[in-house]
Amino acid sequence: MAEKRLEIGLCMPPPGAALAETMAAAGAEYYEPTVARALMERSAEEFDASIEAWSAGGLSPRSANVLLPGDLKVVGEAVDTARLQGYFTEAMRRAKALGIERVVFGSGGAREVPEGFSRERAEQQLRDAAVMVAEAAGDIVICLEHLRRAETNILNSLAESGAMAAALKRPNIKLVVDGYHLAEEHEDVGVVKEVADYIAHVHVCGPARRPPSAEDHGALTALFSQLADINFAGRCSIECHFEDLEAEAPAALAAVRHAAEVTGLR
After folding, report:
1. Who contacts 89 (Cβ-Cβ below 8 Å, separation ≥6)?
2. Which whole number is the average pLDDT over 91-97?
3. The pLDDT of residue 2 is above 60
4. What pLDDT is recorded for position 3?
5. What domains are defined for the chain?
6. What does the DSSP assignment read for 220-257?
7. 149 neighbors 107 (Cβ within 8 angstroms)
8. Phi then psi for 173, rounded to 5 degrees?
9. Does the pLDDT of residue 256 top 60, yes or no?
């Protein structure tokens, strides 16, 4: 049997034991919570007391997304470096305690460039923030996320994100490839090969952020074929809007798993 190169998980809050067991039975191999709304929603003391509950039911967090709340700016005149440093230090402490290995740095609201603000300065501020969190992260890999223009106005393409990762030259600053944002920005999946050295994580969904299905096989295999060609091995999280997680997740997981199997990623 070929070695499995792609683990498949779900972007979701800590599920609790019963739901975790259901999702694991459906094929989920991990889950991906948010940093801003899950890891950091409680006090340090409350978080430390709840660590075991994060892996109840046998499903554990191995990646996290939404690094920053929208009001904690990394770009513009309102940047509070001391507050950012404290936030990153505590967030990465919690991520390490949970065994999280990848943290996705998307956070479109936090990095939105204000109207009239220097683009050059904004890009430098974003680089500075990436370095700041990478230093706090230690062995955790920070994955820069390309986001569609509807969500932010900086780093809208995988190519741009790759250029920033390359310029920073930090071993724990890499990239997430997000199939949804590639499609929304009409960026060819062939860009994956151009930034191959930096890809560390993957996000997928169906059109309009719906759960992926058999109808999305072409788009999924197009992306996964590129990943297979660069010998990617890692995790792929389904990041979508579930109306009924228990009812919809099994089919979504099956669709992604099948695309991974036919392209040789599993």
Report:
1. 136
2. 98
3. no
4. 64
5. 6-262 (3.20.20.150)
6. HHHHHHHHHHTT--EEEEE----SSHHHHHHHHHHHHH
7. no
8. -115, 110
9. yes
